[in-house]
Structure formats: structure tokens, C-alpha cells
């Protein structure tokens, strides 16, 4: 009964009173539940309650797919020249510097050479945090070089897309990247090498209208937004509400536009299975 | 006199004043100040002129009287015989394909078509193609390849249609496939942008050996209105966006994203459709002759190299 004897003391008012919880918990967009961040990380950033797939950055993505989370990065030294000297509410040049600082990569792409389930692969992973994963000249060049390396070394190619589309701040030059990459993919196809396209949330615009849809297999994560035009643009055009689940992976699967919708925890084994089928 | 002409006149006026002041030897302080002021004025006028010219071209490119694909077909080709449908879903009235003769040569002709009046516009879906249009285009191009006929595409499209059905039927996939397949067609290909070159919807029939633009045509990754509402969150900034994105034929030429510009008659192609058509005819004929003389392997290689090295706007440190 020690509490009866406890001497009254002033409450300790020194130091930080607030308990800091930032970064410890995450709210799930799918089920609005609060999830402990560590649980989320342990579950590959998929909500343990509703299986909502959170967006993950390019490095995390590669780490979950490649053996021992090891790979060699290439094309780490490319950066945009800002060909149009584009300025909207902010200068494009400043946007680039900010994004480079925040993501610690040179543009919205990481090119990797690694091993997936014992099979050597060339992988390109897009980084959505870098100006919405938009595709400009650097992304175009990096992916093209990944394709060329794939042909040269006769290794399968995997591209993981996460992008809002072409990078407007590079104008028509970003549009041309679609032609450039697609032309290189024709060579890869001629060379008889596998190309697996993984579409993650979101994959839209010029990326959907070029390499993301050109895989020998097009595989998406559950619930990813995938489309050519953005939902808002479509709503404005047709002037009616879009149906529930429109432009989500499951919708595309139903309409015959995807080969499979695969849960993140099964993605590696699915890719591995496909590569076994395709390897000579 | 329109705004642009007035601005140009003002610029010329100030240029003359500057030239006059500079020609006087031993300028004093007052003259220097005056010169400085004139330079400042001319700078701001030039910016204004750039703005108006990019937007002016956009309006010319969209002019309701501007010659459309079928106006050129009528004037430049004989034996036009349309082929319909993608053999998958439907026929797309916004993107036409057909056989035609050009200076005696059998060619496969493709073009996006806008409507002249309200009824036609609706029927042609304002020239915005659906996936079945792109699939029909690919079918036509493969047919041309099989019979070794060159392909000419006419482009005037605000953009691929952003509709519900288009998404359901895979607009992105249809465009993507055309990009890849056009890159390896074993016949000569020429694309000519006669009005609007609207983003992926235009590129889907523009991965060609020669990409040409009419003087007042535009070619861009997104419409100026779209860019303004996304980047400035204000669709009324379309003039600024048009200028910032560099979408005119001259801009594209400077960026080395096209192979040539076709001149238009004074006032624009709509002012004199016959002479506009004659100018297109000359350039097309010249390019086609050149391409027809090249062996297929050579054609493919130089097409690949062109697109491989296009828009290399990066540095390597």
C-alpha cells in the first residue's frame, strides 16, 4: 500500500512532455486502421488487416525482389539538362535538386543488375517520390541502356513501373522517350529475351502507353491505379462519375489487359516462375 | 492589325531607335540611359511576342477552317480506298486507313480526321482516336509491310480519347504496341503533323523515318490547357504553358525532335488550301523518293538510330 505513503511531489515539468509517435504508426488508406510501422515493414508494406499495398520506394522494391537484397547499380550519374528552362510556379531545375536531395538518386529510376531466385536479371525500378516518377530524358536513357545491357549480356529484363507518366517539364522530349524505349524493346523482342513488366501503384499516362504495357507478361500489384488518362480527365470528358474500382488492377485484369494480379509476397516467386518458362 | 503584328511592329520600331542611337559616336550618359531603357522595353516586348506566337500557332493549328486529312487526300492522292475496322471490336471514324496512289506509287495512307460541322465532329469524336483506331492503324501498317508499300500518316489529333470505354479496351496498350511495331516496319514511313500533334495519341502513328510538321502545327506532350491546369493549377495560363512547353514547329526543329518543316501560305493553311496542299505534296514526294531508294535494312537502322538518339537531354558526370 505504498501509494498512501507516497510523498506529494511536484509534477516533473522539465523536458519533453509529448510522446513522439511520428513514424511509429501508419494509417492504412484501405481500411483506415492504424498499423504499427514495424508490422507494416515486416509485412512488405502490405496492410496486415486488409491487404492494401502501400507504395514502396525503388530501393525497397529491389531489396524484396533480388536475392540477398544485393545488386549492382548502374547509370547513377545521369541528370537532366532542363532543355526548356521550364518554370511554372517553381523552376524545374529547383524541383530536380529538391527531389535529388530527398531521394538520394539522380532521377526517377534505379537500374540494377542482380539475381532473382538464382537467375541473373537486369532490373529497372521507378521511383515515384521523384517528381511523381515522371519520365524525362534521364529515365528514358536509363531504361534504354538497361534494355541494351539486357541484350548485350543476354539476361532477362524486369521493369517495375510507378509513374504519373511523361515529365511535362521536358516537353515533347519526354514524349520522344516513349518512342525511344519502345524501339529498344522491339530489339529486345527480336533478340528473343524475356521482358517482364511489373505495374505498381500508380502507372499512368505515357508510361502505360509505352513500356509498361509491352511486357511479354504484364503483371500488376493488387489495387494499383493503372490507366492511360487520369480519372479526373475522364470524368471531365464524359461528365459522369466513374464506376467503383475503375482503372484498378482488378478492373484491368477483368478486361483482359493484364496477365496477372499478384500479391507482393508472391511477386518474386511469380517472376521466377515466368523466367523459368522463358529461359532457353 | 492583331496583337502579335502590333507587337512585332513595336519591336521593329525600338530596334530602329536603338540602331540609330548606337550609330552616333561618343554617347553621353543620357544616351546610355536611353539605350538601357530601350533595351529593357524590347526585352519585355519580345517575351510578349513569344507568348502570343506560341498560342497564336496553337489557335491556327486548331482553326476550324484548317485543312484536314481528307482535304489533302482529295488533292494529293488518287484511288483512295478506305479500309475499315480493327477486326477486334469496331471501326474508328476518327482514324482512317486506306490504300491510295501518290504520284503513281501505291501507298498506305493513315490519318486522323476532325469534323467540319457539329454533326461530323461528334461522328468523328473530335478527331480523338480510340484503341480500335490504333489497332486498325497497326493492321493497315502490317498490311503495307506485307506488300512492301510505303506508309504515310497524317496527324491532327487533340489527343487519344480519354474515355471510359477507351480505358476498358486498353488505350495505353494499343498506343504502346504501335510505338514498338512502327519502329521495326520494313517499309518507308513518313508522318506529317498537319494540325495538332496531341501527345501519345499522335506519337502512336508518328514513329516514322521522316517526321514532318506544317509551319503552324503544334506537337506536344500535353495540351497547353492541360499543362496549365496541372502545373499552374489554372487553365487560363494556357498561353504561358504553350510558350513554356515549346510546341511550335520551329521549337521542335530546334530540339531536333522532327525532321523538317513544311511551309504554309501566308495567313496559314486555311487561307489557301490548294497551295497548302501543293507545298505538302512537294515535300512528301521528295522525302518518299529518297526513302524508297534505301534498302530496308538501312531504313530500319537509321530509323532506330534516330529514335535512339532523340531528345538526349541529360548530362553524364
Provide structural commentary:
The complex is a heterodimer of chains A (280) and B (317). Chain A is of the alpha/beta class and 280 residues long. Chain A folds into two domains: 54 residues, no CATH class; 224 residues, Alpha-Beta Complex (2-enoyl-CoA Hydratase, Chain A, domain 1). Helix content of chain A is 35%, strand content 19%. Chain A has ten helices and eleven strands. In chain A, strands 3, 5, 6, 7, 8, 9, 10 and 11 form an eight-stranded mixed sheet that branches. A two-stranded antiparallel ribbon of chain A has the order 1-2. In chain A, helix 5 packs parallel to helix 6. Chain B is an alpha/beta fold and 317 residues long. In chain B, strands 1, 2, 3, 4, 5, 6, 7 and 8 form an eight-stranded mixed sheet that branches. In chain B, a hairpin with a 2-residue loop joins strand 2 and strand 3. In chain B, helix 5 packs parallel to helix 7 and helix 9 crosses helix 10. Chain B starts with a helix and ends with a strand. Strand 4 of chain A pairs antiparallel with strand 9 of chain B, so a sheet runs across the interface.
Amino acid at each position: 500500500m505504498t501509494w498512501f505513503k507516497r510523498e506529494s511531489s511536484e509534477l516533473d515539468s522539465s523536458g519533453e512532455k509529448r510522446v513522439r509517435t511520428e513514424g511509429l504508426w501508419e494509417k492504412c488508406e484501405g481500411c483506415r486502421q492504424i498499423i504499427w510501422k514495424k508490422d507494416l515493414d515486416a509485412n512488405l508494406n502490405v496492410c496486415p488487416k486488409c491487404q492494401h499495398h502501400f507504395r514502396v520506394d525503388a530501393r525497397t522494391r529491389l531489396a524484396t525482389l533480388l536475392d540477398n537484397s544485393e545488386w549492382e547499380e548502374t547509370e547513377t550519374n545521369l541528370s537532366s539538362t532542363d532543355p526548356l528552362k521550364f518554370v511554372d510556379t517553381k523552376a524545374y531545375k529547383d524541383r530536380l535538386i529538391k527531389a535529388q536531395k530527398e531521394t538520394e538518386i539522380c532521377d526517377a529510376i534505379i537500374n540494377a543488375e542482380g539475381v532473382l531466385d538464382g537467375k541473373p536479371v537486369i532490373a529497372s525500378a521507378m521511383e515515384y517520390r521523384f517528381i511523381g516518377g515522371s519520365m524525362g530524358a534521364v529515365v528514358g536513357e536509363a531504361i534504354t541502356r538497361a534494355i541494351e545491357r539486357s541484350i548485350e549480356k543476354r539476361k532477362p529484363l524486369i521493369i517495375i513501373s510507378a509513374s504519373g507518366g511523361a515529365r511535362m517539364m521536358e516537353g515533347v522530349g519526354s514524349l520522344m522517350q516513349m518512342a525511344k524505349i519502345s524501339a529498344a524493346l522491339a530489339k529486345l523482342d527480336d533478340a528473343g529475351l524475356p521482358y517482364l513488366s511489373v505495374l505498381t501503384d500508380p502507372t499512368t499516362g505515357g508510361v502505360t502507353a509505352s513500356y509498361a504495357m509491352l511486357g511479354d507478361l504484364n503483371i500488376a500489384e493488387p489495387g494499383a491505379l493503372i490507366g492511360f488518362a487520369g480519372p479526373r480527365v475522364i470524368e471531365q470528358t464524359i461528365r459522369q462519375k466513374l464506376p467503383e474500382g475503375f482503372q484498378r488492377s482488378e478492373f484491368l485484369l477483368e478486361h483482359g489487359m493484364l496477365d496477372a494480379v499478384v500479391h507482393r509476397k508472391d511477386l518474386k516467386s511469380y517472376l521466377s516462375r515466368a523466367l523459368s518458362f522463358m529461359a532457353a | 492589325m492583331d496583337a502579335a503584328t502590333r507587337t512585332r511592329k513595336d519591336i521593329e520600331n525600338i530596334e530602329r531607335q536603338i540602331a540609330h542611337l548606337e550609330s552616333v559616336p561618343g554617347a553621353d550618359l543620357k544616351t546610355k540611359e536611353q539605350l538601357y531603357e530601350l533595351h529593357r522595353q524590347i526585352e519585355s516586348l519580345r517575351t510578349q511576342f513569344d507568348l502570343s506566337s506560341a498560342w497564336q500557332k496553337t489557335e491556327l493549328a486548331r482553326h476550324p477552317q484548317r485543312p484536314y486529312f481528307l482535304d489533302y487526300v482529295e488533292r494529293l492522292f488518287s484511288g483512295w480506298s478506305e479500309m475499315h475496322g480493327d477486326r477486334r471490336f469496331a471501326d474508328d471514324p476518327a482514324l482512317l486507313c486506306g490504300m491510295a496512289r501518290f504520284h503513281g506509287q501505291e501507298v498506305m495512307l493513315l490519318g486522323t480526321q476532325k469534323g467540319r460541322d457539329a454533326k461530323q465532329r461528334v461522328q468523328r469524336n473530335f478527331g480523338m482516336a480510340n484503341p480500335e483506331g490504333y489497332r486498325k492503324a497497326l493492321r493497315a501498317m502490317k498490311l503495307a509491310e506485307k506488300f512492301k508499300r510505303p506508309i504515310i500518316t497524317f496527324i491532327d489529333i487533340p489527343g487519344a480519347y480519354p474515355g471510359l470505354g477507351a480505358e476498358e479496351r486498353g488505350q495505353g496498350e494499343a498506343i504502346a504496341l504501335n510505338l514498338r511495331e512502327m519502329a521495326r516496319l520494313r517499309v518507308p514511313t513518313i508522318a506529317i503533323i498537319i494540325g495538332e500533334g496531341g501527345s501519345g495519341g499522335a506519337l502512336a502513328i508518328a514513329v516514322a523515318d521522316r517526321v514532318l510538321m506544317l509551319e503552324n502545327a503544334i506537337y506536344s506532350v500535353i495540351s497547353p490547357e492541360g499543362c496549365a491546369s496541372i502545373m499552374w493549377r489554372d487553365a487560363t495560363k494556357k498561353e504561358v504553358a504553350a510558350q513554356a512547353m515549346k510546341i511550335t514547329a520551329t521549337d521542335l526543329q530546334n530540339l531536333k525532335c522532327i525532321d523538317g518543316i513544311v511551309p504554309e501560305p501566308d495567313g496559314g493553311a486555311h487561307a489557301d488550301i490548294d497551295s497548302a496542299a501543293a507545298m505538302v505534296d512537294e515535300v512528301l514526294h521528295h522525302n518518299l523518293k529518297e526513302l524508297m531508294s534505301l534498302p530496308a535494312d538501312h531504313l530500319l537502322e537509321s530509323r532506330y538510330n534516330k529514335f535512339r538518339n532523340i531528345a538526349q537531354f541529360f548530362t553524364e558526370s
